[in-house]
Amino acid sequence: MKLSREEVLHIARLARVALTEEEITRFSEQLSNLLENFEVLQQVDTTDVPPTAQSVALQSVMRGDEVKPSLPPEDILANAPRRESDCFKVRAVLE
Amino acid sequence: MNYETVIGLEVHAQLLTKSKMFCGCSADYASAPPNTHVCPVCMGMPGVLPVINRQAVEYTMMTAIALNCSITEYTRFDRKNYPYPDLMKGYQISQSYAPIGCNGCLAIDVDGQEKKIGIDNVHLEEDVAKLLHRAGPGGDGYSLVDVNRSGVPLMEIVCEPDLRSPEEARQYLIKLRSILQYLGVSTGNMEEGSFRCDANISVRPLGSKELGAKVEVKNLNSFKAVYLAMEYEAKRQRKAIVEGKKLVQETRGWVEDKGKTVSQRSKEYAHDYRYFPEPDLPPLVIGRDWVEEVRKKLPEMPEARRDRFIADYELPGYDADLLTREKAMAEYFEEGVRVGEEVSPKELSNWLLGEVSRIINAGNIDIDDFRKKVKPPMLVELILSSHGAINAATAKTVLENMFKTGKTADEIIKESGLSQISDTQELEKIVAEVINSNVQPVADFKAGKEMALKFLVGQVMKATKGRANPQLVNEVLKQKLAEA
User: Fold this and answer.
1) Which contacts qualify for B131-136: CB closer than 8 Å, 24 or more apart?
2) HSE of A27 in the Cβ direction (CA atoms, 13 Å)?
3) Which residue would you say has higher pLDDT here, B363 or B315?
4) 3-state DSSP call for residue B120?
5) Given an 8 Å threshold on Cβ–Cβ distance, is B51 in contact with A62?
6) What is the pLDDT of residues B230-242, one digit of tens each?
7) Does the structure's ipTM exceed the value 0.85?
């Protein structure tokens, strides 16, 4: 299955990634190859297999409502590209 | 042509858990310094593992059951992807395909008639970070991100487009909030943002089955805002249809001080959330025994309490309805009834819905704030005083002083010498003076003018600064006038 140029640009926009012309061509091919692999997987007969979104046999894992210590703000902000006092600073966003 | 308004509401309510939805950080962020209730799970760091808060699931089940929903046995969480700085992970964990509660209903009162509003679903998700907008020096602004709120359990209640007027929307919200407060799952405080409402509204020709272009209205911070915004939108859309303009599906924001809605997002921002099952959380199976356990634990709901108030306390439906709307008011009333055997429930209700509500509304506070100053036994004591020691008008003044000072009725009455004059001898002296100095009215009364008596009673009350027992004044006056 070949992905169209528009589809690649749409995905890039959703991921907020800017692509060069060369990248559009390269990622079109790579993403198309990925989808082809899934097409191979789709050939497996799954008639009697119930659908699942999980590969581990766990269910209903829950915790009690207990407060645990948080991290100090200095650690939380350690990787912040920009900060102001104890907040992350980002470009203006409108509600 | 006649048109009808079609409204559906989405309500987000923060749940009153101690910890966040998927990690152990404290959910009590209101007065916490920025970014102090944050951990790697909140930040969406690589390799972290969110774990579901059982209490949040149970609160959502309680709400779903109270809203007559069926509880989904095989439920799960999904990722809702959207890049926005209020989400550190780039996605919000929500429920799209298998919400905890489905197909419920909530009955509201429309002009004395019961109307059932369908509940499409009740689901669980996480709140997002708070953005603080700052103006830059050259008018170029920026935003600051405080992650404390991110991950606080958020329950969303989505109703069917069954509401037909701004008033129905208001009634629905009042009823829904009351239920959440009775359940104790949310504070329901709209001003503080723990109870938020987005409204979908469209207009269509009466009798049409198809929905018109849907407009989503955001930024509704009070019941009044919801009412006014719905009223404005219904009018705006009707006008556009009549003028032959095409309405587009869009998101609009309510601007309180301008009293209107404005378009918020253009089409290029149309969302593509790409929901998919959350791989970090195994599916959640809600066993039927858990559902039954929760059902048994449900407290009495507002409607049941209203009916009980009518039956047990012989209150009129109007009183019972107003007293049970807010859980805290209903509790205050019942506590008062328990301690005040000599005060009838109806009299207590009159005080609560009259003077007490007036003080609450005037101060823009709630019954809990009032309770901090005047506890139910103190109000009962005041009502008892109004049967004898002081008259009704004085009692109202005393209540205001009680609320201001936190003192008891007895203390205030003693301190300010407000107690009623019930001593006949003392009254007789005052009455004699009034008769002597009001020759004409006395003559009028003797000539058969009943109105003159009222004037004389008024003079006695004035002379006693309202402290005389009006019945006694009447008796003494009549007696003295007969003698004169």
Assistant:
1) B131/A93, B131/A95, B131/B85, B131/B86, B132/A87, B133/A92, B133/A93, B133/A95, B134/A84
2) 16
3) B315
4) strand
5) yes
6) 999 999 999 999 9
7) no
Q: Are B356 and B386 in contact (CB under 8 A)?
A: no
Are the C-beta atoms of B133 and B155 separated by less than 8 Å? no
What are the pLDDT digits (tens) for B335-354? 999 998 889 999 999 999 99
Cβ atoms of A47 and A37 within 8 Å: the answer is no
Coil, strand, or helix at residue B436? helix
How far apart, in whole angstroms, are the C-alpha atoms of residue B185 and residue B61? 10
Predicted model pTM: 0.80
> Can you tell me which residue has the tokens 């990722």?
B79
DSSP letters for B6-56:
EEEEEEEEE---SB-SSSSSBS--TTSPTTSS--HHHHT-TT----EEHHH
Q: Which of B170, B280, B446, B219 is nearest to A54 (CA)?
A: B280
How far apart are the C-alpha atoms of B442 and B94, rounded to whole Å?
81
Q: How far is B394 from chain A (nearest CA, A)?
A: 51
| CATH number assigned to the domain covering B424-483 | 1.10.10.410
How far does the CA of residue B197 sit from the closest CA of chain A (Å)? Answer: 15
pLDDT in tens, B267-312: 444 567 889 999 999 999 999 999 999 999 999 999 899 999 999 9
Question: Residue B143 is nearest to which of A59, A61, A90, comparing CB atoms?
Answer: A90
Quote the CA–CA distance of B292 and B277 in Å, as a whole number. 27
* Structure-model confidence comparison of residues B414 and B310, the more confident one: B310
Residues 6+ apart with CB under 8 A from A72: B36
Looking at the DSSP bridge assignments, the partners of residue B19 are B26
Query: Choosing among A56, A59, A77, A87, which should be mutated to test the B contact, i.e. which has the most B CBs within 10 A?
Result: A87
Ranges of each domain in chain B: 3-294, 317-416, 424-483
Residue of A nearest to B51 (CA): A62
Which of B17, B25, B35 to mutate: most A Cβ within 10 Å?
B35
At position B265, the amino acid (one-letter code) is: R
Q: E strand or H helix at B124, and its extent?
A: strand B113-126
CA-based torsion, B159, B164, B165, B171: positive or negative: negative
Point out which residues pair with B114 in neighbouring strands.
B109
